[in-house]
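Please produce the structure of this protein holding fe (ii) ion.
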Amino acid sequence: MAQITAGVAVSHIPALGATIDHGRTHEPYWKACFAGFEWTRAWEQAEKPDVVILVYNDHATAFDMNFIPTFAIGCAERYAIADEGWGPRPVPEVIGDPDLAWHIAQSCILDEFDMTMVSRMDVDHGLTVPLSLMFDQPAAWPCKVVPLAVNVVTFPPPTGNRCYALGEAIARAVASYPADVNVQIWGTGGMSHQLQGPRAGLINAAWDNRFLDDLVDDPHRLRGIPHIEYLRETGSEGIEMVMWLIMRGALGPQVRALHRHYHVPASNTAVGHIVLEPVA
Ligand SMILES: [Fe+2]
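Below is the modeled complex.
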């Protein structure tokens, strides 16, 4: 049977992708930031996931104000790399897993989570930067991807509690999938950052690190964090962290942290990363 073997949370800052694409990860500004992903890259090579359920948000690329699904699952065979204004990133196309994706969609909807099914969707830095951070620059990505796009761009985003519960529903879906596949779930985005306005560049390292602590120790506190606290404490884009709670909810009650990395600054954003393993 299919099994979720691990969860990964990672920022998806576009500057990290551009730095990889231009071969600048060794430069002094970036070196320490990228060093924190070396452990995970080696670990991923050993783990060899068959599929990653990749929770991310679209940044007005595939969706705009005409369509704003709260939870959209990609059910396509493949996904093109989006042109976000300066040409598509030079990374491989993303290969989907329609059988698993439709299974998750059906299971979640019958479990009372109203997913939007998407058959065509270009994927932007929210999805491709995490793949680059985990897998470097291969000729082809080493696993299939089920994209799960969450609205955190336009108010109102879903609550952290709803995201956590969706993760639990995804775990039930995967557990009922009758194929022997090694599935990882990744939550992306965050951590504290504000891109515009008088508080642009806001970083709250203490808040971020407590969030990382409680992904392991007290996820139920995180479920209850209201939107206004994300806005006040982590800036206008910190709400992306609710996507990490989908990943965390899918791992079950107890987890063990295998690796953790926090780095400031990267662009004007705090980089957070944690690798979690479910404890039976
Ligand atoms: Fe984002």
